[in-house]
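User: Could you go from structure to sequence for me? I need the amino acid at each position, not a summary. Structure tokens:
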């Protein structure tokens, strides 16, 4: 097979695996995400240099690489075997839960291996997270079967985790902005629909709870939007979708329409695209710190949306750096989502006018019958969407896509300085925004 893109190589692999019990790729030249997510008892032979996430999420395959592999080889694999006849990069076997990885050369470092077995013949260069254990008789017999000679068994050092401090969400007060209501009577039905990749929503409002439950998922689905699911019970409440799951808390990607992830590495976006065969919406959730640089890095891997988590950060502070990075990327297909503790439909419209495409509300945890919680959630979202339509119409638009900063007026110097909105009395943007 000639050298090609990751997508073309993996498509050819999947096509061959339909009828063949073994497949071969030669001439690999550093492509990331090769031979990922294989859920079939098949032998895959690869020659050349593999990039990051080689063999990631392997479930059943026996994957052999004649050459070196970069970082995250065998990432989150849950079965099967990976043989690397060469060196491996950083974070070898990170988050793997089962299976076997065998490296004939050196490894830069070991990832947080949760289960399974990792064997290295050469040196583990960074031993901070690695311990070497003696092989048991079964492991010696297995290595002998493959004629691999002497090997070291590497395991992750046990880590001590501190209990997470729970941050109280910041109330993102938008009182320093006036929504300019123009009172047009000519506006008819207002379009509040939102498309995020392949997700088609009837409202820009969705739920972003830290502890979702089936009622959240059910109510969001019934109102034409989504809530992020974290377990099978939540997914099963949604009959026809859209199902959005939080990666890697929930890892069965066959059941979802979209994936929300907090990346260990931005290249995880490309990994998920390959694992889902480019058929799922990918939402990349990032923190609001170093926002300009992080959004620049995010757009390079082309998620369908970047969601900025403002759970403990003032929402108005994210638009300057985030919008600048998105404008420089000139990719209109990447949506900007804001996750915030907003109070009202007017807050939501102000956030949309500042540049957001969608708003994720932190809805308080609910206990009890899923149907009852679902009805409450559905009623909340539908009421919020109805109020958004009225407000957008009062501003003089027939679509949320037309909202912009000229629909707002900043009441304080600080609000104008942070966002670039016109300052009341000055009636234009402050000089630092004139470019």
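Assistant: Here is the amino acid at each position, in order:
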């Amino acid at each position: 097979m000639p050298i090609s893109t990751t997508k073309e190589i993996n498509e050819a692999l999947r096509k061959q695996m339909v009828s063949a019990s073994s497949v071969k790729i030669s001439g690999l030249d550093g492509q990331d995400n090769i031979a990922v997510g294989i859920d079939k008892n098949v032998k895959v032979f690869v020659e050349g240099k593999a990039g990051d996430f080689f063999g990631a999420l392997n479930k059943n395959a026996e994957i052999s690489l004649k050459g070196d592999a970069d970082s995250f080889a065998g990432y989150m694999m849950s079965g099967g075997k990976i043989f690397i006849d060469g060196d491996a990069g950083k974070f070898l076997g990170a988050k793997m839960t089962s299976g076997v990885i065998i490296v004939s050369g050196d490894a830069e470092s070991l990832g947080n291996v949760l289960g399974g077995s990792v064997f290295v013949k050469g040196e583990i260069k960074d031993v901070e997270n690695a311990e070497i254990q003696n092989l048991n008789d079964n492991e010696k017999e297995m290595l002998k079967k493959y004629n691999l000679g002497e090997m070291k068994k590497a395991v992750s050092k046990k880590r001590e985790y501190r209990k997470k401090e729970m941050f109280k969400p910041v109330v993102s007060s938008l009182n320093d902005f006036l929504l300019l209501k123009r009172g047009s009577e000519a506006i008819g039905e207002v379009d509040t629909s939102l498309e995020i990749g392949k997700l088609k929503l009837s409202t820009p409002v969705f739920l972003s709870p830290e502890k979702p439950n089936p009622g959240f998922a059910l109510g969001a689905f019934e109102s034409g939007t989504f809530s992020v699911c974290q377990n099978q019970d939540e997914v099963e409440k949604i009959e026809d979708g859209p199902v959005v799951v939080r990666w890697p808390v929930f890892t069965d990607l066959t059941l979802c329409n979209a994936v929300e992830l907090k990346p260990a590495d931005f290249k995880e976006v490309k990994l998920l695209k390959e694992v889902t065969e480019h058929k799922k919406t990918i939402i990349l959730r990032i923190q609001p710190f170093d926002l300009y640089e992080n959004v620049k890095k995010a757009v390079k891997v082309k998620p369908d949306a970047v969601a900025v988590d403002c759970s403990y950060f003032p929402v108005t502070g994210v638009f300057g750096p985030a919008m600048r990075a998105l404008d420089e990327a000139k990719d209109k297909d990447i949506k900007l989502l804001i996750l915030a503790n907003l109070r009202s439909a007017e807050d939501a419209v102000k956030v949309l006018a500042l540049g957001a495409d969608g708003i994720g509300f932190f809805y308080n945890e609910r206990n009890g019958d899923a149907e009852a919680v679902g009805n409450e959630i559905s009623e909340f979202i539908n009421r919020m969407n109805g109020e958004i339509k009225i407000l957008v119409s009062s501003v003089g638009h027939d679509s949320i896509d037309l909202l912009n900063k000229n629909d707002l007026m900043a009441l304080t110097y600080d609000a104008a300085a942070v966002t670039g909105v016109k300052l009341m009395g000055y009636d234009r943007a402050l000089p630092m925004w004139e470019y």
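One structural detail worth keeping in mind: Residues 56 and 74 are 4 Å apart (CA to CA).
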